[in-house]
Every structure is written in C-alpha cells, then in structure tokens.
Automatic annotation (TrEMBL):
The lineage of its organism: Bacteria, Pseudomonadati, Pseudomonadota, Gammaproteobacteria, Oceanospirillales. GO terms for biological process: DNA transposition. Signal peptide: none annotated. Keywords: Coiled coil. InterPro entries: Homeodomain-like_sf, RD_transcriptional_regulator, Transposase_8. It comes from Spartinivicinus marinus. The keyword Coiled coil applies. This is Transposase. The keyword Ligase does not apply.
Amino acid sequence: MKKPNYSTEFKVDSANLVINQGYSAKDAAEAVGVSESAMRKWVNKLQQEKQGITPKGKALTAEQQHIQALEAKIKRLEREKDILKKATALLMSDSIKPSV
C-alpha cells in the first residue's frame, strides 16, 4: 500500500489545529483524516521550525525552506572551491617542473 503524500500547506494547517486552535493531536488527526502519529510528527516539526531548528527532512515553513536552500548552495559552492583549489595546485605544479 502506497503511503499518502500530503502537501506542505496541508501539514502546516493540520499542525496549526493543535498549536494554535487547542485541538488534541488525536482530535485534529481524526478531523483531517490522518494518523495520530503523523499529526504528532507534523506538530513537533512545526514547533521546532518555529524555534529556529532546521529539520533534517523537508522543511514545513517558508523560512526553514529558505535556510535549507541556502545551506545546499553553500555546500555546492564549497565543493566547487575545493575543485578549483586542486586544479590550481595541479596547474602550478606542472608549470614549476623544468622543461626537458
């Protein structure tokens, strides 16, 4: 059986039933038709993101999604910089060798 795929907006709206509207996780889960464990996971994730904790998986809030995108860009740029350093070192070592 394939696991349902819920949109980020749906997860945030559902978690906000618990966080902002005082529903219990069980009642909110029943109201939107998801498992209680999924609801608890979404609530915990959203609460952590609101505290500034970047999640390991896909972020729910726009701010954390932006942070994840920037972190990915930094990693890519660092890899590119390392490649350029190695290429420069290789080219310099070739130019230092005496001609025969």
